[in-house]
Amino acid sequence: MATVNPQMINEVVKLSSIVTKSKKSSIALLILIVALAIIQFILPIAEKDGTNINSFQALQYNSYHWAFNYFYFIILVAVLGIILLFLSKKKEISCWYDFSLWTLSFIGLLTFMIALQGFLKKTTSLGIQDNALNGVVSFFIIGICAFIAIGKLFNQYEKIAEKTKEKMLTSDFKQAIKNKKIIYENTIHLNPKWYVTMQHPDPIKMAVTDKEIIISSIPLTKIPLQNVKSVTLNSLYQMALRVNCKDGKKYKIMWAPANKAAPYILLETQDIKENLNRILKKAGFV
After folding, report:
1. Which of 1, 145, 161, 178 could form a disulfide with 258 if both were Cys (CB 3.0 to 4.6 A apart)?
2. Taking a C-beta distance cutoff of 8 angstroms, is the pair 207, 182 a contact?
3. Quick one: which of 27, 33, 134 has its CA closest to 76?
4. Domains of the chain listed by start with CATH number
5. What secondary structure letter does DSSP report for 28?
6. 183-234 pLDDT per residue, tens
7. What whole-number distance in Å separates Cα of residue 252 and Cα of residue 40?
């Protein structure tokens, strides 16, 4: 079974964020939406007696099956897409609306196409054959629109992430790291629940000095390096690592992106584990 690589998703998200930082991305999105509407009057979704039937012409057959209302669905998507585009220019609205629209459009397009193909294969009395050209081109356009929407969402959350980074630096944390050399730092979740990736709470800051691990939790968490027995990946929940202390205490640590639009990546948690073990080994504590 094929698996989705979070790192690949992360690279796609970053690429889309770079593309959408350009002002031309909004113009490109508008052109794509208009093109999506126009091709409904040009490209076929079926054919009869050798004559192509575009999605607008197919409405005359909607009494036979609901999938012939494909034209209404695509035009609704196009209208909503343009409305959201202009609203985002006039005032700050959540890019989740854009992302949700194009994600649902993907699902809706597939539903209409599969339903129409299934109906035409079973019903030969109408003399109508399937033609997927409209669906393929529409799918491609919606895919690019979704790509742009992902980038817009990432960039919006990037602005929020800057505020989140400021919140992580609590007064206690600042005082604890004052005048100390930071060997390693990262953003994490401390003792996360198994469903943390579904909630995506704000991360906290972890800084490592030559003597202790300092975490900006409330209250502040300090783990002396000399008290650390081992750092291992959690056997039950591989997304988190476990810091086992000599006094019996255990801390679960999981890498967390400051930008909530970015995916959780196991390799980042493994990287924290490797860095902690490297620091502990160099200091002679393990």
Report:
1. 161
2. yes
3. 33
4. 6-165 (no CATH), 169-283 (2.30.29.30)
5. H
6. 999 999 999 988 888 888 889 999 999 999 999 999 999 999 999 999 998 6
7. 54
